[in-house]
Amino acid sequence: MQYCSIGELSLVLGVAVSTLRRWDREGRISPDGRTPGGHRRYRVDRVLKQLGLRPSDARRKTLAYARVSSHDQKPQMETQARRLEQHCKARGYAHVEVICDLGSGMNYSKRGLKKLLRLVLAGEVERLVLVTKDRLLRFGAELLFGVCAFMGVEVEVLDAQPDISREQQLTEDLIEILTVFSSRLYGARGRKNQRALAEIA
To answer: What CATH topology corresponds to 57-157?
Structure first.
């Protein structure tokens, strides 16, 4: 049985630690134990049940998730989506929903990713199907896979072994990191310059 701290539970549920402490005081949730130092430890599945976030298994569906980083890669996203749909149809999966997302693999606030996580936490997902692991997130996919494990969601990765070398993967990771941080840096500079011009005007 896996347990998590109140901070980890906060990340899983997407609420502040202070909110979880208030829910604890109100009796909405309760820890499954404490460490020798007195820190709360929770079972995520039991907390979700206490909060009424898990409906019956009859509603559970198969989610297929496709993602690309930019608008000019839209044809690749459509190719991913078709492949995922064909795979699910060949396996005979019922209640299939394809979520297509646009944005960096380092962006944790993408609309589709938020919807995916919300459905998983609501207990409405039986399995999650991806073309490759990095389509979910470039970094940190293991955290979401852990959430899926807590919720009993099967994860299928069609290409478990990428067809590119480890060196190329690392190069692409580095380029993505530089792209994200550059856009944030120049975006911040742009806003700063706009404020300065407004003050002069």
So the answer is: Rossmann fold (3.40.50)
Q: Who's near 7: CB < 8 A, 6+ residues apart?
A: 17
Cα–Cα dist 67/127, whole Å: 17
Q: Alpha-carbon distance 7 to 41, whole Å? A: 10
80: pLDDT strictly greater than 90: yes
Structure tokens at 89: 């149809």
Dist CA 46 CA 13 (whole Å) = 13
One-letter amino acid at 168 equals Q
- The Cα 168–Cα 163 span in angstroms is 10
| Listed residue (92, 8, 105) closest to 47, CA to CA | 8
Helices marked H in the chain: 6-13, 17-26, 44-50, 74-91, 111-121, 141-150, 166-200
Contact 69, 76 (CB under 8 A): no
Average pLDDT over residues 89-97: 89
Q: Does the 6-50 domain belong in CATH 3.90.470.10?
A: no
47 vs 49: CA distance, rounded Å: 5
| Domain range annotation of the chain | 6-50, 57-157, 164-201
| Residue 195, pLDDT above cutoff 70 | no
Question: What integer pLDDT is reported at residue 152 of this predicted model?
Answer: 86
Instruction: Give the C-alpha separation, 41 to 34, whole Å.
Output: 5
pLDDT at 90 over 60: yes
Token readout for 95 is 């209640």
